[in-house]
Amino acid sequence: PGPAMALPVVVVGFGIVGASVAWHLARSGVKVIVLEAGSVNRTQGLASTTSMAWVNSRDKQPLHHHELNVEGKDLWAGFVHELGCPQALTGGGDVTWVAAGSDRGAAATKLREVVSRGQQRGYPVRLLEGGCRPLAALEPEIAFPTAPAVASHCYTDSHVDVGAVVSACLDGIERLGGEVHQRTRALALDMDMDPRQQHHPHQPHVSQVRCESGRAYPCSSVVLCAGTGVPALLANTPAADHGAPPLNQRPGMTIVTEPLPSRLFRSVAMWHAPASFGGAIAIRQLPDNSVQIHAGAQECKDGAAQVLAEAVAHAPVLAGATIAQVREAERPVPADGLPVLGASRMSGMPDNVWFALMHSGVTLAPAVGRLAALELADGAHVDRLDPFRIDRFLTGAKL
What we know:
Layout: E1 9-12, H1 16-27, E2 32-35, H2 47-50, E3 54-55, H3 63-83, E4 89-91, E5 94-99, H4 105-120, E6 125-128, H5 132-138, E7 148-154, E8 158-160, H6 162-175, E9 179-181, E10 186-193, E11 204-211, E12 216-218, E13 221-224, H7 230-233, H8 238-241, E14 247-257, E15 270-274, E16 280-285, E17 291-296, H9 304-314, E18 323-334, E19 340-343, E20 353-357, H10 361-376
Helix pairs in contact: 1-6, 1-10, 3-10
């Protein structure tokens, strides 16, 4: 454990990122209190469980963002091993293909560029050309409603059973003496001026997290992992004066089928294919043989029936499959597309608010948990987090 703390660290939100952060802190000897507005592993309104949970760094820009995602990707096998749920990680790679035809030429060119950039960075991705043949060799049961022009195969990518990982984190946190409060909605961060600050004696400081129930939880630091709920929590803080962090909320929808009698894929973990309504459809199979199918809600206006029909066109074995769940959530995407991570280093901003706000939460979860523990448990300043701090959005603030 790092420096002794008189008060616990409060983690707001218990999706995949909040679960990882809380577990890493608890493992480092920190007293942790988690506040989760809903129930653990709820499937509605939570970006983590609506997500396809694709672990990757395919074409993440710029380079420092790519490198952070590679770190998260590489940590996943060790993370699930430590949690005791190795079955939650499904390997085999991702296949993404685009259709041939005059109107798809730009998509094929873009995919070739993505593969080229990845290979230049040393990312394990290869280009598959030759129409259906190389794809059918990977997955003989997959169909092709239109002829493929080109495909990519990121052969070390994987996907995660988010529910299994969150449950394992919950067990670990409670075993280590932490607390996870479900159906406990955080409303506001209460501020005071911290006289212990040697360099900035009037630096604002979050003293407690106030909840809808009226109860307040005193804290040494607070970690915000509440996705699209983060801006409302900052209403009482200087960040609100700067309109930070600006978020683009993107709707997402996935459907989950009842378990199939057998495995869908022979070798790959994820399958991305062009959809007739525009954009792409993604298919993965969970350890219990249920199948999760994703399409952006903005791209598919007719809902679950159309998403399943598209999936059947690519995977005929899904014909007759029963939809068990339709999951919808708003996905938090910072305005510049990059994660918001770490505490502010700006004068006039509370330095004990640690942000964990991002779109690629599943890929980054183990890395973010590790980095949060370095800064909050060990008292380190992690330089590689500086490009991701909220400070980039704080106009008029001073270092």
